[in-house]
Write a structure and sequence with these properties.
disordered N terminus; alpha+beta; 5-stranded antiparallel sheet; about 325 residues
């Protein structure tokens, strides 16, 4: 029977067979586990792992007190040399013991990459036996750490809201609970803050892109920012900053707007409304831009000179 077609079995437990420092990731460690699937489904708990507590106590005793154990664990992991040069994360090429009659593995190795804190807190000594539940927790810890590091890289490239970050992590294949745990960790470290994001976003959009509060509000809500954080950021927007943004945009667009003065003002006002400025502010900016243009022409500036003073970019 082809071994590649064996039926997946739930593991009965595992034994820690190796611990080494990760060569490329600081504070990360590779822990090699020898998984035990039992001889038959359902016969794993007492027969195969009934002496787990006794064997773990023996492993602890080899290291003496807890402080010495931690020192020995970290030093040993950092100096460990592996025989293989390639990663063996759940590799099919890792050593396995097979039940030839059923083509099911009885033992198989897997390598988990975990943080130093997990290594120490869970006391992952060589020879320590783990239950199936403990192995699953370690796998979840590995996923959470991978998600956290992926999130840090994304946040280095650009600021994101909590909703945007979680969506990006899910697209990378991380489970919803893993993404949520990652976001919570980042929030506690003040590296993910939707309230601060909303304030920076509001100011940047108003000053840099000359957008009004209504459009900024819509964009923040689309990015998943909580409405309370949005309203707080909009409420703190300086009215003078928004007024100057509207007026600067009106002055820029007036020369390229077609029609008589009234038509041009109406078109300009419509453009400002679409950019998110309040009705009263849009009207004021359009009227002032028209008035300034009329005053400039009455001062003797010919039309060619007038147009050269403005950026005609649409």
């Amino acid at each position: 029977m082809d071994k590649d077609k064996h039926i997946e079995l739930p593991i009965a437990g595992a034994v820690v067979t190796g611990v080494e420092a990760h060569p490329k990731k600081p504070h990360m460690y590779r822990v090699t586990l020898k998984l035990d699937f039992g001889t038959e489904p359902g016969l794993e708990t007492e027969d195969n792992f009934g002496e787990t507590a006794h064997e773990n106590a023996d492993a602890d005793e080899r290291y003496g007190d807890w402080n010495s154990e931690v020192d020995a664990l970290i030093v040993g992991a950092q100096t460990a040399k592996r025989a293989k040069k390639t990663d063996l994360v759940q590799s099919e090429e890792s050593a396995a013991t097979w039940n030839e009659a059923t083509a099911r593995p009885l033992h198989e190795e897997t390598v988990l990459t975990i943080h130093e804190d997990t290594l120490v807190s869970r006391r992952l000594l060589r020879g320590r036996r783990l239950t199936a539940e403990e192995v699953e927790v370690l796998r979840q810890d590995e996923q959470k750490e991978e998600a956290y590091r992926a999130a840090l890289l994304m946040l280095e490239r650009k600021a994101r809201t909590t909703a945007e970050l979680m969506m990006a992590l899910k697209r990378k294949g991380y489970a919803a609970e893993v993404a949520e745990a990652c976001a919570e960790r980042l929030r506690k470290m003040k590296m993910l803050d939707d309230s601060a994001y909303a304030k920076r976003f509001t100011e940047q959009r108003a000053v840099g892109q000359r957008k009004g509060r209504m459009l900024i509000r819509q964009e923040l809500l689309q990015r998943g920012v909580d409405r309370q954080d949005v309203e707080q950021a909009i409420g703190e927007l300086d009215g003078d900053v928004e007024r100057e943004a509207a007026l600067a945009l009106a002055r820029k667009r007036w020369p390229s707007t077609k029609g008589n003065d009234r038509e041009r003002q109406m078109k300009l006002m419509g453009m400002l409304l679409r950019r998110g400025f309040p009705n009263s502010l849009a009207r004021m900016a359009a009227q002032q831009a028209a008035a300034e243009a009329g005053e400039a022409r009455s001062d003797g500036m010919d039309e060619d000179d007038f147009y050269e003073d403005y950026d005609l970019e649409q």
